[in-house]
């Protein structure tokens, strides 16, 4: 009997002993110029930084910022039980090297295993030829003609709907969630232009995707996610099923469009266009995917990835922008001065004539300060606060750090964008002027490795120009038209997600401005 009990005890304890052995002896010590890398704060025996990564995300942001504040650009080694050796990089030189060496650094198994359920073969998750095909399709869609339609036709249409909604809420004195307003604008815009479908921010798909994104983000913080989801993952699995079904419906709709024989029912002239000019779009994004990829399951993955990237991030940055603007009335006044100068002093009311000359607010160069406000909000609240790559081969970073194959590389735009070494002593302050040249008439540029909100190298965000055009026009019109008064004076934080949605939305009161004019 004792012998049997001994075997049972050994069988139960052996996996734990192997795990402890790996923790103590199994992870490589990474070196820079032959010297072992330092470890960040809160590195503990046995668990390494595992406890840190289990914290809620706002505390995790603060931890990354603390690491940067203590060690500057120094590369640090992080360790989490059961994961490959990893580093945190903060030096723009190292990040530039990662950006420019796409063949050396890829998403890797570390990322793909965690995000596969939600993103599949989509561009967010893809490498190699699968990534190239989707990127080329995106480039074809985001051409000059389509961007012109976006700024002069599509965005004014959906922005006007939001203006009408806010007029109603202002008259009633109702509480408004600005995050929901911006999300509705970007969702409708992407639905009509990219997928030829009517979409709304509060439909079942959006709710399901929001939850699935949050759980996927938690997988990167919890090394035992595959265990916890066995017991607590039922809602996640339902959400993913809803998302995938929606992707399949998007593809089916595109295929039906393609098969139409009647020349009056071309894909971009559907009932959702309403005869309001969107038929000028040179082919929808999903039709580009069908041309380039063919396989309908892969097209669905591609479409869902672009939908997330195109609508969520821009809406979130706009939310954080207005959060900052409500706390900086001096900046609001400067935006209004700039916009009034651009549209002229003898304009008419926006609510009745906004669509007469939308092009005057679709020119980013004509609104340098407004563009600078958008950049500064992006800096302080980057829509993708963490990024992860994996080395596909052994390599050495510019600072001398040697990385063996499969090493995990982490950088935190949230922390890098607050670096005093890069942004000066006022790095945590909201100062749009930092983005303007001495004349104040031109927005200066920063390298992708210093300001990594749009990624960099071959993977530079395709939607960068679209986001700038959309955000600048929305900020200009909304600020000129309304006063927004915050109702919660506490610090707003983000909720668990792969991007940066504001937890609880952005509740505020809206007041219609008498001086809101538009020519």
UniProtKB/TrEMBL annotation:
Transmembrane segments: 6-25
One example GO MF annotation: iron ion binding
Cofactor: heme
InterPro entries, alphabetized: Cyt_P450, Cyt_P450_CS, Cyt_P450_E_grp-I, Cyt_P450_sf
Entry-linked PROSITE patterns: CYTOCHROME_P450 (PS00086)
GO BP field: lipid metabolic process
UniProt entry keywords in alphabetical sequence: Heme, Iron, Membrane, Metal-binding, Monooxygenase, Oxidoreductase, Transmembrane, Transmembrane helix
Pfam family, one: p450
Positions of heme binding: 461
Family note: Belongs to the cytochrome P450 family.
UniProt name for this protein: Cytochrome P450
Organism: Sodiomyces alkalinus (strain CBS 110278 / VKM F-3762 / F11) (Alkaliphilic filamentous fungus)
